[in-house]
Amino acid sequence: MRRALALPCSPLALLASIAVASGCGSEAPRPNSTEHPSPACIEATQHSDFGWIVGEVFDASCTSSTCHRGQSQLEHLNLTAASAYQALAQRSVGQPSLRLVEPGNPSVSYLMIKLGDYDQSLLNGRHMPTGGALLCTEMRAAIARWIAQGAPQ
After folding, report:
1. Distance CA 110, CA 96 (A)
2. What's the pLDDT band for 75 if we cut at 50, 70, 90?
3. Which end of the chain has fewer CB atoms at under 10 Å, N or C?
């Protein structure tokens, strides 16, 4: 007869295990579903302008959860409409050798690496947005097109 090994488990350890199992804090990219793209993902194929990216991507995925707005600006990165452009011109806190946005070159823009594209060996920390699927391919492509066009304001 086999006996299960019982280990003491604190409530904190249990919650941490659940968070890891549910993907919170995961280091690996989480796939996005392209079977039924959302209207915003379909619309993203027509955009590469900064105003649309702020309104449809950053507002929905980055600032709505308070991660990158107001007093709780993670990594000192405020992605609200009034501050996003200046904030993205800075060097990355997570990877100081890279700028968040390298105009004309999305493949070395740390923003794109954090979103799950390009050289993932440069990733420090988690992919963004945290706790859910990666942005759809179409939204990531819209951001990459904006950067490739020189990241105009």
Report:
1. 9
2. low
3. N
Helices (H), the chain: 11-21, 39-44, 50-52, 59-61, 84-88, 110-114, 137-148
Cα–Cα distance measured from residue 94 to residue 82, given in angstroms and rounded to the nearest whole number:
23
Look at the chain and report how many structural domains it folds into: 1
Start-to-end C-alpha separation, the chain: 69
My answer on whether omega of the bond before 129 falls inside 30° of 0, hence cis, is yes
pLDDT tens-digit series, residues 29-55? 444 544 678 888 999 899 989 999 988
| Lookup: tokens for 133 | 């699927």
Residue 44 vs residues 19, 24, 50, 101: alpha-carbon distances, Å: 31, 26, 12, 19
What distance in Å separates the CA atoms of residue 131 and residue 133, rounded to the nearest whole number?
7
Residues 8 and 117: their CA atoms lie apart, in Å, by 40
Instruction: Specify if 133 maps to a domain.
Output: yes
The number of angstroms, rounded, from the C-alpha of 65 to the middle of its chain's C-alpha atoms is 12
- Within a domain: residue 86? yes
For residue 29, being part of any structural domain is answered with: no
For residue 44, give its domain range.
40-148
Give the separation between CA 111 and CA 88, rounded to whole angstroms: 8
